[in-house]
Amino acid sequence: MKLPFNLFSAGRAELNKKYTEVLSLFQSTTPITMGVLNCTPNSFSDGGQYLTRTAALAQAHKMINSGADIIDVGGESTRPGAEAVSAEEECERVIPLIETLRAELDVPISVDTRKTRVMQEAIKAGACMINDVFALQDEGAVELVAKTGIPVCLMHAKGTPKNMQLNPFYEDVLQEVFDFLKARIEVCLKAGIHPKQIIIDPGFGFGKNLDHNLILLKNLAEFKKLNFPILVGLSRKHMIGVILNKEADNRLYGSLAAAVIACLAGATIIRTHDVGATKDALAIAQAVSATAYRTLQEEVYA
Questions:
Q1: What residues contact residue 89 under an 8 Å CB cut-off, 6+ apart?
Q2: What residues contact residue 127 under an 8 Å CB cut-off, 6+ apart?
Q3: How far apart are CA 5 and CA 174, in angstroms?
Q4: Which residues does the annotation mark as catalytic?
Q5: pLDDT top residue among 40 and 219
């Protein structure tokens, strides 16, 4: 199969050894768990719970003790209908916390932001990854990532948090999301971002209705054709609530089912609010997947 990119010639930058730990996670053959840490008053699931540094730090320790491989710190809610906050306010929420986490913890810290200024300050504070729901479309974001060599997740979103769930429409959701991610990857590679810095996320719940989300999850393996690691964020999402008729705090089992489906379809990183339970579910999925692969290999080479 012809790949959409020549990964041996694309991109001009050399990998920054500063980010070796998180870059190695991208190449993992076992599922990676990213723990969600929202320092916001209005996130859809845990808004307001971790506004103080003490509470946020305690939650980070809890997630790490449960097996989190990465902690993803966010200071702006991207729930449907959420109002944007200024870069200044977002920095006030996340930068001191990132500094504290880097000083006290050994796991990589990701910053969940779409603003170039916040990215820049987070990198200075010690963030090892950028998780951008708008795929580096803010002015200067691509150049910043190319210059610093920091790993980045490019996510698809249609619209903004304010309007993205107002009757989202696609002619072909799978093809359109695929084409968007392909185009953003091309922009990044042309700017000098190294291919190994990049992971992709189809953006469940970001400008998609239930059918769109289910189509993307059912066909998640199609995104492997882009030849980049895949991150998924399904934890406690509205789509799970619609199917089960349950509020965010009661969507654990649905979230675990979605995480397992994503893992078996080839997702590398699972972003979750419930690290311990997700880690256990993924371990079972990985064991089954590895056994199936070994059986196939035995048949081929028998």
A1: 75
A2: 73, 98, 102, 109, 110, 111, 119, 150
A3: 19
A4: 237, 271
A5: 219
Per the CB < 8 A criterion, the answer to whether 205 and 239 are in contact is: yes
Which tokens in the block code for residue 293?
């692969």
* Structure tokens given for 126: 């010690």
Domain 17-301 listed as CATH 2.30.110.10: no
Residues 6+ apart with CB under 8 A from 22: 70, 108, 110, 128, 129, 151
Estimate the crossing angle of helix 141-148 against helix 116-125, to 10 degrees: 20
Q: Residue 131's beta-bridge partner residues? A: 112, 153
Average pLDDT over residues 8-33: 82
- Whether 260 and 281 have beta carbons less than 8 Å apart is answered as yes
The predicted structure's pLDDT at residue 3: 46
Over range 144-168, report the average pLDDT: 91
The pLDDT of 109-132, averaged and rounded, is 98
| pLDDT, tens digit (0-9, with 9 covering 90-100), for 228-282 | 999 999 999 999 999 999 999 999 999 999 999 999 999 999 999 999 999 999 9
Which of 249, 140, 146 has the alpha carbon at shortest distance from 194? 146
Closest CA to 70 of 100, 32, 27, 124: 32
The residues with which 232 forms a beta bridge, in sequence order, are 270
The whole-number average pLDDT for the span 80-104 is 91
* Contact assessment for residue 174 and residue 222, using Cβ atoms and an 8 Å cutoff: yes
Strand partners, 233: 271
* Percentage of residues in the chain having pLDDT higher than 90: 77
Residue 195 DSSP label: G
Specify whether the CB–CB gap between 262 and 217 falls below 8 A: yes
